Amino acid sequence: MDDPRWLALFLAWVAAFVSTLGALFLGEVMGLQPCVLCWYQRIAMFPLVIVLGLGLVWGDFRSARYGLALAVPGGLVAVYHCLLYWGAVPKGMVPCGQGPSCTEGQLTVAGFIPIPLLSLVAFCIVAVLLFSAWKGTRQ
After folding, report:
1. Helix axis angle, 63-85 relative to 115-138, nearest 10°?
2. How much is the mean pLDDT over the chain?
3. Residue 88: which residues within 8 A CB-CB, separation 6 or more?
4. Which of 26, 41, 62, 96 is the most buried (most CB within 10 A)?
5. Which residue spans traverse the membrane (predicted)?
6. Is residue 9 a contact partner of residue 55, using CB atoms and an 8 Å limit?
């Protein structure tokens, strides 16, 4: 546990775990239905809890590489989601069909923090920590 790679992997797991709990809380407790892009981000975030958790238990720092394969695409979807939310992408390019829209103003926490931004921050934190853990295994 004195290995800085373990700490980076653990912190990435904590960030993924908190993000997963937050997404489940917003959907199941608060009743906010996820849009299409939210689902894609969940598909990338939820497995990180298992992949990184197993990497921690087994002491396998290669799990950082597998985690990056999920965190980077998830982060790119989160960037696109933020751009949609802020109106930087034309409304004709919104991938949402039936159900909740990616551009609705109700997608905020505490009344002013956009949920897509929270997702982007979470993916960035996870990716930076995983890159740090992975870089340490390559030396």
Report:
1. 150
2. 86
3. none
4. 41
5. 7-27, 39-59, 66-89, 109-134
6. yes
How many C-beta neighbours within 10 Å does residue 44 have?
Answer: 22
4-138: CATH topology is Bromodomain-like (1.20.1550)
For 68-107, what is each residue's pLDDT tens digit?
999 999 999 999 988 888 888 776 766 665 556 656 656 6
The torsion of the CA quartet 30, 34, 39, 42, rounded to 10 degrees, works out to -20
Task: Provide the residue type at 4 as one letter.
Answer: P
pLDDT of residue 11: 96
Distance in angstroms (rounded) separating the CA atoms of residues 114 and 36:
16
Sign of CA dihedral 71, 72, 78, 82: positive
CA dihedral 88, 89, 90, 94 (to 10 degrees): -140
Tokens standing for residue 133: 């853990």
Q: Which helix (H) or strand (E) holds 113?
A: strand 113-114
CA dihedral 108, 103, 16, 75 (to 10 degrees): -140
The region, left, alpha or beta by phi > 0 then psi within -120 to 50, assigned to residue 96 is beta
Q: Of 120, 2, 8, 106, which is closest to residue 65 (Cα–Cα)?
A: 8
